[in-house]
Structure prediction request, 228 residues.
Amino acid sequence: GNSVTQMEGPVTLSEEAFLTINCTYTATGYPSLFWYVQYPGEGLQLLLKATKADDKGSNKGFEATYRKETTSFHLEKGSVQVSDSAVYFCAPPESGAGSYQLTFGKGTKLSVIP
Amino acid sequence: DADVTQTPRNRITKTGKRIMLECSQTKGHDRMYWYRQDPGLGLRLIYYSFDVKDINKGEISDGYSVSRQAQAKFSLSLESAIPNQTALYFCATSDSRNLDEKLFFGSGTQLSVL
Prediction:
């Protein structure tokens, strides 16, 4: 099955700093890739996705590019804000016999300080 | 109103007790999932259901059971709770008609087993 390796946290940054959270995966074929975000006290919600190789997903100033050659989907943001403090999860889907479920990375906790 | 509703939000119980966590959804999705979240371990899949008559074990199903009472309802039971089942539990849904199969999460149930 598929698996994902995500950069361990926690990560603490000052406001307006550049953010990178690394994610690499092993997968059968080239599935869609996702980043989910979990704000304090809430469930996970989709942040962005990329459905094919070389595709770039973006949302709320975050970007991630689906790089087939390095099997990576690193999350980046040029200037983080305090409101970006959350836990971020990388997730490739698992496919087999037409069924899907998601395997999640362990999550990276980001704290942004003013 | 939330699309994916979990009850209760918090629960404290004693070792050996049977408890049930409930999940209902108004999204009309056919697939439902139960995950647990533990610090440093990310999200792990307990059970998933692709329709009312299709129940599958996930990565960590031992000590848990589920019931898909209707398309909109998916409950998780701990037959005899033990302290290492203390965790944050999430229900999620997805729509098999969507190729990218993104998940929609409830707000979680914090369970403490004393």
About this structure: Chain A has a mean pLDDT of 86. The CA atoms of residues 5 and 24 of chain A lie 5 Å apart. Chain A is about 0% helix and 50% strand. The two ends of chain A are 41 Å apart (CA to CA).
